[in-house]
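Hello again,

I reread your note about wanting to compare the complex against the isolated chains. To keep things tidy I'm splitting this into two emails, and this first one only covers the full assembly. Below are the input lines as submitted, including protein chains and any nucleic acid or small-molecule components. They are followed by the predicted structure of everything together. The single-chain runs will come separately.
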Amino acid sequence: MDGLAFEVAHLFAALLVLLSFVQLYQDRLSALLNVFALHAFALAASVAWQAYIQHAPHLYVTAAIAVVFKGLIVPMALHRIIQRLGIHREIETVVGIGLTMLVGIALVALSMVVMLQVTTGADPLARQDLAFALAVVLLGLLLMVSRRNAVSQVVGFMSMENGLMLAASAAQGMPLVVEISIAFSVLIALIVIGIFLFRIRERFDTVDVAALERYRGERA
Amino acid sequence: MILGTLGDLAVQLVQMLLVLGAAPLFTGFVRKVRARLQRRKGPPLVQPYRDLYRLLRKEAVLAENASWLFRATPYLVFGTIWVAASLVPTFATGLVFSWTADLIAIVALLGSARFFLALAGMDVGTSFGGIGSSREAMIASLAEPAMLLIVFPVALIAGSTQLATVSEFMASPEVGLRVTLGFALVALVMVAIAENARIPVDNPATHLELTMVHEAMVLEYSGRHLAMIELAAAVKLLLYASLVASVFFPWGLATADGGIAAFAAGGAAWALKMAAAGLLLAVFETVIAKMRVFRVPEFLGAALMLGLLGTLLLFLTRTL
Amino acid sequence: MSLPDQALMLVLAVPLGAAVLLALLPGYKLTSRLSIAASLATLVAAASLFRADLPVHGTYLLVDELNIVFIVLNTFVAFTTSVFSAGYIGYELGTGRLTPTYLRFYHAMYQLLIFSMNLALLANNIGLMWVAIEIATLTTVVMVGIYRTHEALEAAWKYFILGSVGIALALFGTILVYMAARPVVGEGADAMVWSVLVEHVAAFDPALLNVAFVFLLLGYGTKVGLVPLHAWLPDAHAEGPTPISAVLSGLLLNVALYALLRFKMLLAGNEGSIAPGPLLVWMGLASLVFAAFMLYRRSDVKRLFAYSSIEHMGIMAFAFGMGGPLANFAGLLHMVMHSLTKSAIFYGVGYVAQVKKSQKIDDIGGLTVTHPWLGWGLVIGVVAIAGLPPLGIFMSEFLLVSSTFAREPLLAVLLVAGILVAFGALLLRLNGLAFGEPRGGTASAGVSFAPMYAHLVLVAIAGIWLPPPLVAWFDHVAGLLG
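Full-complex prediction:
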């Protein structure tokens, strides 16, 4: 059971990292949102498995929140938004996709090296999940940094949060307070995002963050 | 004793002929399924044999400035690819030549075939040949490292690059649920598509020269030369399909010391796997559109990344 | 319920309840008065904690020598800001820059911000602290964008993105601290309770603590505004309403630094962990020098003082990085003094921007002639923030410089150089703003300057005399900070 537990956790976590890469590979916004929905499902599967092997029923709640909220509601809402804004076509990247993926691999390698070195005391499952979680966080950060479109930056931020929830579920016994609070904060964050995206739309006719650069105020 | 050795040789010969004979059928099968998916009747399954026969009977026309390389390449290409294909287990592993059946050797053989073909494409000096060769070189420069990064984790897990050992290991229960192998499989399929010039990397049925990669290189060939190259391409496709089947789905493979019955069962299993592979390939080609050429490096880069990721994951599980 | 428990509950419940109430009530006058009343009630509740027997800790909340001063300071500045914003926002309403709906929104968000900051200061559970800081960030993001102009949206978006990235990294660091604590303290809520952690920290794995602190420094350091993570700060200060600039500079930066201090205290208890000192020292120096030079070329008055905040945060980080009882004491004192002085300056600047109808320095001049109370208040404020005696900031800077000089003379030279550069820039600007030929509008401000002068009086007193309990508390904490 122990071996199987490890293998399945490994499978789900590796799937999560893979989907982060697939997100980096996308160049169409609607495809990116679909991959993000899959990302959320993979996270839910991972957290649910953790719930099963840790005998921690509160994690099932977290998994359910991930599925319903990040897997269904948010992608659907964002699909509607991008249809309205008419930006469901190309995403402009700051550097080419190939280079981005290369940097992504370097980040994955880095996070594995760092995490495996410092967590020598913990059990293998927690160690690998933490390493993968950091990789997903860094890949989400990379997605945010390498895209000029505000919606794709938001998707990058949300996949960062997915990585954090993986880390939180891997840390066995972390109290419920933190988990529900995380989900709660994500909710508020997304409401804010929604308001802002609409405001950006009202003010500009584009969600291209580069267009915001004109109004940067002083070059400070 | 001698009978044993002769018997082994005979089995190996059967494999070599099987690969050669079944390749056009495989290509015909893929074409037929694609046609059916597109609601056409499609050419008959044996059409590729007829095409080859027709080509063999025609005169080979050479350009005036074609060098010895141009004339020798079809034979070289055909030879290397046939040898490589004979080494990949189809119905049985551990045949007489299997001690040479090393994954790296197969990659090297295929690489040298591609090398000669690319040179021949540039040999006559036409611009289309140049386009084809340069595109082929670009694809190769990414596909080869990707291939090696697939071989690497697979060999690390199985403990050897020998195909026979790899297949045996994969068939045994020690394998377990390995994410790295999943990544390696996907990457291998992507590389196979690129190497065999299938959609989405290249369209084998196109007649527009600017969209060609493989076809552009062989544009100047005719007659028996073209027949050899076409046959070599068909054998290459069968090779990759058999490779995927023997490494990742090795169930049903007979071992060298099994009897005729085991071989027959292995053969049947192989035929089934090839049919499935052909079906999946045809469906995939119908569903996906061809990529623009400048996106092919991204596609292959993704395969490379998958291989790298698989290797990283392998090191992770080894360290823990 | 005992006195401290009651007081704690009130400190948290009053702003939260006020937020809900203010979201529902219409009418500008009523909401602003209610906001002021709520802030006053919170201040009284916090002040009553002075009588409690420290430290007081439960599973979620904690009052000890470190945060007693900050919680009272927080509620005090929140109160004076609410008085200031009553007048300021009323003016904005009058000119139509804000509509009544947004006004309701503003007051509710303001009380929510106060609630979250109080919660962050009082939290004993490191996860709860993180949540509170995240809520505070989100409310300020919304308020920075409240004017809905192009510039405001850009500033809010940049603040949101950078702030969220910082928050995410800080959460990862928090999780790693839990992972370090779990083998020693056991699973469950206990491994996140700060007072429990600090007792057992010597047994934690130092490597894991190190990595955790790096993430926490990157995460919370973004919210403190340390260079190079500061990019959101000038825009957020310049584009948001002035009360929010005051609260950001005066309170939120402090709360983020306070979070870092809690973790520094934790790390100080473990011998194997890296000394966070050098990291903080260099980031602090970088912030100080960078901001000091940037002060020279600013043309917007709020942006000018935003960079001044970055500079002072750099000084504080430097102080805590140096470590040792004297430098730590100086840092703590500086946090309090800066908070009071900077918010006073922003009160002045807010009125100035309103009467001159512009935030550009070129459009403002001769304040002491046209608006004497305002002008001279601003003069005193800028002189204080530049570090002249006998005001409070001079005291903390002097302590810091002398303690640094005794240990690392080279760093002290850099420190003094940075302070002097900033000093020059500020006085230069002050000259243009307050003296000389009057420029811009001369309409009356029509508001009270009580909040500004109240702060300035406190800063002036602190420059000469500090109340003994305060000194005792800070001494104790300075010792614990390592």
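For quick reference: Chain B has a mean pLDDT of 88.

B.
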